[in-house]
Amino acid sequence: MSTVDADGLTPEQLQSFNDNGFLVIPNYLSAAEVQSLLSTTHSLLDSFSLDTHPMTRFTTGDDDEKTKHVGDDYFLSSGNKIHFFFEPDAVAPPTSSEGAPRLLKPKNLAINKIGHALHSLSPPFAAVTISARNAAIAKSLGFRDPRCLQSMVICKQPGIGGSVPPHRDSEFLYTSPPSAVGWWIALQDATTGNAALGMARGSHRGRRGGHIVRRFVRAEGGTTFITNDGQQLPKGQEEEKEMEGGGEEGGFEVLDVKAGDLVLIHGNVLHESQRNTSEKSRYAYTFHVIEGAEGWTYDERNWLQPPAEGFSRLNDAVE
Fold first, then answer.
1. Any residues with CB less than 8 A from the CB of 48 and at least 6 apart, and which?
2. Do you know which SUPFAM superfamilies this protein is assigned to (predicted)?
3. How many structural domains are present in the chain?
4. Which has fewest Cβ within 10 Å: 8, 10, 264, 290?
5. Which residue from 24, 1, 19, 18 is spatially nearest to 257, judged by alpha carbons?
6. Is residue 124 part of a domain?
7. Using CA atoms, how far apart are residues 304 and 227, in angstroms rounded to an integer?
8. Residue 264, class by beta-carbon neighbours within 10 Å (0-12 exposed, 13-18 middle, 19+ buried)?
């Protein structure tokens, strides 16, 4: 059974989230729900075609200055589609100037992630995303008009699942002021050596270095990071002053998350995930929620832009 109250988070859960910048909720999805999402994921991996795929590999370029940020049309147009992105280590470069990249693994074992509109285009994923319980969580977090975006399965394939360097989610899905919260749901166990999450506890607070000082945006020829010249802290945190050292000296706390568990991740908290060095895959489903109410603006420079109908409203599940 889920440990979420029917009315959203309990006062104790909310306090923990506000203090730490993340919250682990055990058994959020039932075994049947997890199996449904895993079966859907495997079906998607088996059925997508390579015939017209541009062989886009997913990387932010964060961990290697020589690695180009992902930013081709296949990536930039994925906000309202289901697209497939390869692990860099699963694709060999062309052997000649006229050659094409080639896979080093079977295609179903070569994908880094599937995204970014599973919550609106795949009924099994929609069922666990646009739901009354998620709307209740968002309400208890203070959202007035929570909007869902950037849903994806992160695959972390055996042996090659790449690490994700330290980052803050509001760098990628920036609103002014920042409002993003991530829902990260383990579909398989995520433990040390198997691409576990690492959280810098309390690093979302302004006095702990939780400012959004950079942004991941569209740019000529793709995407890039820029200095954020807008608001850097969510409403209610503007008065906090950053401490010297940024509050990151405590390092990352590695979470032990089981299949079906939900991790709520504050958009300003610093976090990372490890490389998968194990012989097992580590699938997770994640989506983000931003504030759509008046007083918050989703930036037109963000890499992901809303479809014509706008981002999905979580409150539609209860209205």
1. 84, 107
2. Clavaminate synthase-like
3. 1
4. 10
5. 24
6. yes
7. 18
8. buried
Query: CATH code at 183?
Result: 2.60.120.620
Buried b (16+ CB within 10 A) or exposed e, 195-211: bbbbbbbbbbbbebbbb
In a domain, 96, yes or no: no
3 state SS of 253: strand
258 belongs to a structural domain: yes
Q: How many residues does the chain have?
A: 319
Reference 196, options 157, 163, 158, 150; nearest CA is 163
Q: What are phi and psi of 159, to 5 degrees?
A: 80, -25
Tokens of 27: 């058994």
**CA-to-CA distance for 286 and 135, rounded, in angstroms?**
15
pLDDT tens digits for the chain (319 residues)?
456 656 799 999 999 999 999 999 999 999 999 999 999 999 999 999 998 898 887 775 554 444 455 678 999 999 999 999 998 888 887 776 666 778 899 999 999 999 999 999 999 999 999 999 999 999 999 999 999 999 999 998 888 877 888 999 999 999 999 999 999 999 999 988 888 999 999 999 987 789 999 999 999 888 999 999 999 999 987 655 555 444 444 689 999 999 999 999 999 999 999 888 888 999 999 999 999 999 999 999 999 999 999 999 999 999 7
In a domain, 3, yes or no: no
Question: Which tokens sit at 237?
Answer: 């945190």
| H or E element, residue 91 | strand 91-92
Query: CA 199 to CA 274: how far, in whole Å?
Result: 11
Rounded-to-integer distance, Cα 267 and Cα 204, Å:
8
Given a contact cutoff of 8 angstroms between Cβ atoms, the answer to whether 178 and 237 are in contact is no
> Which domain does 139 fall in, by range?
113-317
